[in-house]
Amino acid sequence: VINESQKQQLESVSYSSRYALGLFYEASTRIDVPWAAQYITNNPCIRFISIDNKKRNIESSEIGPSVVVHTTVTFGSEHLDSDPAEVQQLILSHLERIVPSLPKPASVKCQKWRYSQVTKAVPNCPGQMILHTQPLLICGGDGFTHSKFDGCIDSAMSLAEAVKSHL
């Protein structure tokens, strides 16, 4: 379906890797920190922490709070093929040093995010690539722009224009 040049362009895309850790609490749990989210600059493991219900301004007596942690790109790359249980423990130990007041969660989920953010987008294809015209097959996304909200919007607009020109 795709030609060799397109294949090479798609294969040239590169992504950073990281881990995301979710901590889930019982409904009655209070997480006593004065912020909803923190960007961490001085830790080799953790880059971002969010108290999800605070960030979304949601209070519920039936649903407990959750904490989301993203690791640094360097940590993600260094531990990409490590045992997930060991990675989880490493992240938790760093988190405990950053936020020692966190209560013990009811459950924890550690997720490897192999393709986190685009570090090198498809060259010379701003927003999309038409792979085939009959039938129309177009691909797009942040791999054709950059991994921020406006990059996704740019790709969506480019995709819409490409489809429009083939109607």
From TrEMBL:
GO molecular function ontology, one term from the record: oxidoreductase activity, acting on NAD(P)H
Species per Swiss-Prot/TrEMBL record: Pterocles gutturalis
UniProt cross-references to Gene3D superfamilies, sorted A to Z: 3.90.660.10
GO cellular component, one term: extracellular region
Top-rank taxon: Eukaryota
InterPro entries: RNLS (IPR040174)
Name by which UniProt lists this protein: Renalase
